[in-house]
Design a protein that fits this description.
Elements: H1 2-50, E1 55-59, E2 65-68, H2 70-76, H3 80-83, H4 88-92, H5 94-109, E3 114-122, E4 126-137, E5 148-155, H6 157-178, E6 183-187, E7 193-196, H7 198-204, H8 208-211, H9 222-238, E8 242-250, E9 253-265, E10 271-280, H10 282-310, E11 314-319, E12 324-327, H11 329-335, H12 339-345, H13 353-369, E13 373-380, E14 386-397, E15 403-412, H14 414-479, H15 486-510, H16 514-517, H17 520-535, E16 538-542, H18 552-573, E17 577-584, E18 589-595, H19 618-627, E19 631-636, E20 642-649, H20 663-670, E21 690-695, H21 699-710, E22 716-722, H22 725-735, E23 739-743, H23 751-761, E24 766-771, H24 776-785, E25 789-792, H25 797-808
Helix pairs in contact: 14-15, 17-18, 22-23, 23-24
Length: 839
C-alpha cells in the first residue's frame, strides 16, 4: 500500500516537474522572442533619433543619461557608450549643472515643460548658443512625477547672428536713407506707399505717416502720377532695375529728378516691393547746361575763327554802331592791318576817295534799316594799289531779336572787271561775226535750194521730155520692124521707163513741189507715202495740220532732215516701221520727232552721216539748224531704237535794227534771186530777260550762283539776293522776279514757309527749292507749298540752267531725261512717247 502511494506520489511529482519544465521552456522561448522584438524596435527608434540634427537624450530621475542620439554624442565629443549611464554633471560640468541645468531638470521631473536659451562651451564646436527643451517622461500616465526627462538641444548660434546682422543692417539702412540726399520711397506690388525717408518729406513738404498706405495718384497731380505709375508697372513686368529722368511737381515748383527703381524679390522670384531712389538734379542739370552752352559757345567761336581764317575771301564783323570787331586772316593779309587797327580806323579808311561817299551812305542805310547789302568799290591793298572789291553783308540778330551788327565778306574782282571788259568787247565782235556767219549759212541754204530747184527744172523740162520723146519714137519704130526684134525693143522700153522713173524720183528728191505748193503737213504725208512706195517703210503720222514754218528755206531744211532720218531707219535700224510727230512747242515753235524701234544709235556712231547719200551728218545738221534758229538732237529712244528731235521757230526772227551788221552784207543777201522769204538770224528770239531772286543764308553760295547766272545774261538776270525767308518775301514784293531760287533751311524763316507765303500772295512767281540734302520728304513739302521744282545744290551746271530754261518757258536745246531727276524734262514729258505711237 505504501509502495503504491509512493509510486503514485512519484508519478505526480514527475508530472508536476514535467509541467514546470515545459512552462520554463515556454517562458524562455517567449522571453527570447520579446527580447528580439524589443531590440529591433529599439534599433528603429535609435535610427530615427540619430537622423535628427538636434541633440536628443533621455535623463532619468537620478540625473543619468539613459538614451542619447548621435548628434548629442558629437556635440559632447565622446562616444555614445561613454555617456549612457553617466551623470549629467560628469558630462556637462559640475558648475553648469548646479547653476543652470539641475533647476530646469527638477522642474521637468515635476511634470512641467521647460524651454530656455543658454551659451554652452561644447568640446566639439566651442561656445554655442543652444535652445534647450525639457519635457517630462511618464511610463505610467497616472503618476504625477515623471520617470525621466526628454531633452532636445537645438543650436541657434547662426540664427542669432543672422538676426543681429539683419537688425544692424536694418537700422544702418534706415539711418543711411534718413541722412541720404536722395528721396527713398518703398511701395508694395499694389503701388501703395510703405515707406518714405526724411529727404522725401522735406522735398514734398509732407509727413511720411500721412502718405503711408496711399497710392501715387493720392499724393501727386494726375499727369505726374500717371508717369510714375507707368514706371512702377514696368518694374513689376520686367523685374529689372530702371533709371529715368522726370519732372516732379513739388510745393517749391517742378524739380528734375533722376530716379532709379528696382524690385525686391521674394524666394519665389516674385516682386514683394518696389524701391525708388530719386536724386534732385535740377541745379546740377542747370549748371551742366550752362557749362555745356559755354563750352559750345567757345567751340563755336573757335570753329568760326578757323573757318573764317581758312576762307579764300576777306571776312569781317561790325557791331550795331558800325565798329569793326573782327577781321579774318585773309582780310589782314590783303590790307596789311590787324583787327585792333581796323577797330580804330574803320572800314571806310581803306575805300577809294571817289567811292567813299557812296560806300558811307550805303553802310549808314544798311545799319539803319538792318538789311543785307551788296556793293562794289575800290580799296587800297597792302601794296598801295587800288583794287576793285565786291562786298556783301548780312545782319546779325540775337535769339531775342536784338540787332548786334553785320557779318560780311569781300573778294577781289579786279581781274574779273578787266576780264568783263575784254569779254564784253570780244562778245560784241563774236556776235557780229556769228551774225555774219548766220547770214552766210542762210545764203548757203538758199543757194542749195536754188540749185536743187534748177536741177529739178532741168530734169523736168529737158531730160524727162527727151526720155519721153525717145520712148515714143521707139514705140513707133517697133511697129515697122519685124517680130524678131520685139524682145530688144521691150528691153529698151523698160530701160527708158526706169530712166524716167529714176529722173522723176530724183526730181522729187531735189525739189518736192508739194513742200512749196501745199502745207508742211501735206509734205510729210507725201514723204510717208513715198517711203512706203519706194522702200516699203511704213511711216505712221501724228501731225498738227496748222503747224508750218513761215520761212521756205527752214521748211526745206526740216523736210530734208526728216527724210534723211527715215533713210537712217531703212539703212541702220533693221526695221520697216517708223513714226513722225509734228507738235507745237510753246507759242512760237514746233517740234518734229522721228522715232523707230530698231537697233538704236551707238555713241560711236553719233557723228556718222544718217544714211548713205545723205550729205548732212549730225554735226552739220546741228550747226545748220542752230544757225537758222532751231536745233537738232539724235538720242536713244526710251522705248528702244533711235529718236531724232528737230526744233524750229514758226516765225522768222528778226535782228533788232541797232544790231544790224554791215550794209554791204545785207545788200548781197537781199539781192539773191530766190523765192521771197524772211531772213533768219543766229540770235534766239528777242525776249525779255528772265529775272531771278537768289535766297540763301550762305554768302559764298549766293556769290557762286550769282557768278554762274551772270554768264547767261543774254536771257537771264539776277535782280536781288536775300539771306532768309522773311527778307525774301520783302524782296519779292519789291522786285517781282520771274523765278525765286529758294534755299530750304535758313534762319528766322525757312524756305518752306516763305514759299507758302510767296505762292499765296504772288501765284505767278515760280519758286524753285534748293537743298544739300536729298530727303524726298523735303522735296514733297516744297512742291506742296507751291514750288514748281526741287533741285539739289550739287546738280551739274548745265542741268541747273536747263531747269531754269524749262520753268522760264525757254528751250535753247532739247531737254533729255536725266536719271533720278525731280521733273521729267524729256521730249516725252509733254508729248506721246514712241512706245504709245500708233502705226
Amino acid at each position: 500500500m505504501k509502495l503504491v502511494e509512493l509510486n503514485a506520489g512519484l508519478i505526480l511529482l514527475a508530472s508536476v516537474c514535467g509541467g514546470l519544465i515545459i512552462l520554463l521552456v515556454a517562458a524562455l522561448l517567449l522571453g527570447r522572442y520579446w527580447r528580439r522584438t524589443l531590440q529591433q524596435r529599439l534599433g528603429v527608434y535609435t535610427s530615427i533619433i540619430d537622423t535628427s540634427p538636434d541633440a536628443l537624450a533621455l535623463v532619468g530621475p537620478d540625473y543619468r543619461y539613459r538614451i542619447i542620439n548621435q548628434a548629442f554624442a558629437q556635440r559632447a565629443g565622446q562616444p555614445r557608450e561613454a555617456i549612457i549611464g553617466r551623470l549629467v554633471p560628469d558630462v556637462i560640468g559640475e558648475q553648469a549643472f548646479n547653476d543652470l541645468i539641475k533647476p530646469k531638470l527638477d522642474q521637468a521631473l515635476g511634470g512641467n515643460l521647460v524651454r530656455y536659451n543658454a551659451w554652452f562651451d561644447l568640446p566639439a564646436t566651442g561656445r554655442r548658443l543652444v535652445l534647450v527643451t525639457y519635457a517630462p517622461y511618464h511610463q505610467d500616465p497616472g503618476r504625477a512625477d515623471a520617470d525621466g526627462v526628454l531633452l532636445c538641444s537645438h543650436d541657434i548660434t547662426d540664427l542669432r547672428r543672422i538676426e543681429q546682422e539683419q537688425f544692424t543692417a536694418k537700422h544702418a539702412l534706415q539711418a543711411l536713407l534718413d541722412n541720404s540726399p536722395m528721396m527713398a520711397c518703398i511701395k508694395d506690388p499694389e503701388l501703395r506707399i510703405l515707406s518714405l525717408n526724411k529727404r522725401g518729406e522735406e522735398l514734398l513738404n509732407i509727413c511720411a505717416d500721412e502718405v503711408i498706405g496711399q497710392r501715387t495718384e493720392d499724393v501727386f497731380p494726375a499727369q505726374a502720377a500717371a508717369k510714375i505709375a507707368e514706371h512702377d508697372r514696368r518694374i513689376l513686368q520686367t523685374k529689372e532695375p530702371q533709371t529715368t529722368e522726370d519732372l516732379l511737381p513739388t510745393p517749391n515748383g517742378e524739380r528734375v529728378m533722376m530716379s532709379t527703381r528696382f524690385p525686391w524679390l521674394d524666394s519665389n522670384h516674385n516682386v514683394s516691393a518696389i524701391c525708388t531712389l530719386s536724386l534732385d538734379v535740377t541745379e546740377l542739370q542747370a549748371g551742366r547746361e550752362a557749362q555745356r552752352q559755354a563750352a559750345a559757345l567757345r567751340e563755336s567761336e573757335r570753329r568760326f575763327r578757323v573757318m573764317a581764317d581758312g576762307l579764300p575771301t576777306m571776312n569781317w564783323l561790325i557791331d550795331a554802331e558800325g565798329r569793326v570787331e573782327y577781321v579774318n586772316r585773309g582780310f589782314a593779309e590783303y590790307f596789311g592791318v590787324t583787327t585792333a587797327q581796323m577797330a580804330i580806323i574803320g572800314c571806310c579808311a581803306l575805300v577809294h576817295p571817289e567811292d567813299l561817299s557812296r560806300v558811307q551812305a550805303r553802310m549808314a542805310s544798311a545799319l539803319k534799316e538792318r538789311q543785307a547789302f551788296q556793293l562794289e568799290c575800290r580799296a587800297r591793298r597792302a601794296d598801295q594799289h587800288w583794287r576793285w572789291l565786291e562786298c556783301s553783308a548780312n545782319p546779325l540778330f540775337e535769339d531775342d531779336g536784338r540787332f548786334v551788327g553785320f557779318v560780311g565778306s569781300a573778294r577781289d574782282i579786279e581781274q574779273r572787271k578787266q576780264a568783263d571788259k575784254a569779254l564784253h568787247q570780244s562778245q560784241k565782235q563774236l556776235k557780229e561775226h556769228a551774225y555774219q556767219l548766220g547770214l552766210l549759212a542762210q545764203e548757203l541754204t538758199r543757194a542749195e535750194q536754188r540749185e536743187r530747184m534748177r536741177l529739178a527744172q532741168v530734169l523736168h523740162d529737158h531730160l524727162q521730155q527727151l526720155l519721153v520723146g525717145a520712148m515714143m519714137a521707139t514705140a513707133r519704130l517697133k511697129r515697122h520692124l519685124e517680130d524678131s526684134g520685139s524682145q530688144e525693143f521691150a528691153k529698151l522700153q523698160n530701160l527708158l521707163d526706169e530712166a524716167i522713173g529714176a529722173s522723176r524720183n530724183l526730181m522729187s528728191d531735189l525739189w518736192p513741189q508739194i513742200l512749196y505748193e501745199s502745207s508742211f503737213s501735206d509734205a510729210l504725208n507725201w514723204l510717208a507715202q513715198s517711203m512706203r512706195k519706194r522702200y516699203e517703210l511704213e511711216v505712221s503720222l501724228d501731225l498738227e495740220p496748222s503747224l508750218s514754218p513761215e520761212d521756205e528755206m527752214l521748211r526745206g531744211l526740216l523736210f530734208e532732215c526728216a527724210r534723211e532720218a527715215l533713210f537712217n531707219v531703212i539703212k541702220h535700224a533693221g526695221v520697216l516701221e517708223a513714226r513722225i510727230e509734228l507738235l507745237k512747242r510753246g507759242e512760237r515753235a514746233l517740234r518734229i520727232m522721228i522715232s523707230d524701234r530698231g537697233k538704236g544709235l551707238g555713241a560711236s556712231e553719233s557723228e556718222r552721216p544718217l544714211a548713205s547719200g545723205c550729205h548732212l551728218g549730225l554735226t552739220s545738221m546741228r550747226e545748220r539748224m542752230r544757225l537758222l534758229g532751231g536745233s537738232a538732237t539724235v538720242t536713244e529712244n526710251p522705248g528702244g531704237g533711235t529718236l531724232v528731235i528737230l526744233d524750229a521757230p514758226l516765225e522768222t526772227p528778226q535782228r533788232p535794227q541797232e544790231d544790224q551788221p554791215q550794209q554791204a552784207v545785207l545788200e548781197q543777201v537781199e539781192s539773191a534771186p530766190l523765192t521771197p522769204t524772211c531772213r533768219l538770224s543766229l540770235d534766239p528770239l528777242p525776249i525779255k530777260p528772265v529775272t531771278v531772286l537768289l535766297v540763301d543764308d550762305h554768302v559764298v553760295l549766293r556769290d557762286a550762283l550769282s557768278s554762274l547766272l551772270a554768264e547767261e545774261k543774254h536771257w537771264l538776270q539776277v535782280i536781288g539776293e536775300a539771306s532768309n525767308g522773311r527778307e525774301a518775301i520783302e524782296k519779292v514784293g519789291q522786285l517781282k522776279p520771274d523765278i525765286v531760287l529758294m534755299d530750304f533751311a535758313m534762319p528766322e524763316m525757312n524756305g518752306l514757309e516763305a514759299t507758302r507765303i510767296i505762292h499765296h500772295r504772288w501765284p505767278s512767281i515760280r519758286v524753285i527749292g534748293l537743298s544739300l540734302h536729298q530727303e524726298t520728304d523735303r522735296g514733297g513739302a516744297m512742291i506742296e507749298a507751291g514750288a514748281v521744282d526741287y533741285i539739289n545744290k550739287t546738280i551739274v551746271t548745265h542741268e541747273l540752267l536747263d531747269k531754269l530754261r524749262l520753268h522760264a518757258g525757254i528751250d535753247s536745246k532739247p531737254l533729255l531725261a536725266q536719271p533720278g531727276g525731280g521733273i521729267d524734262s524729256s521730249p516725252f514729258g509733254q508729248h506721246k512717247s514712241p512706245s504709245s505711237m500708233k502705226h
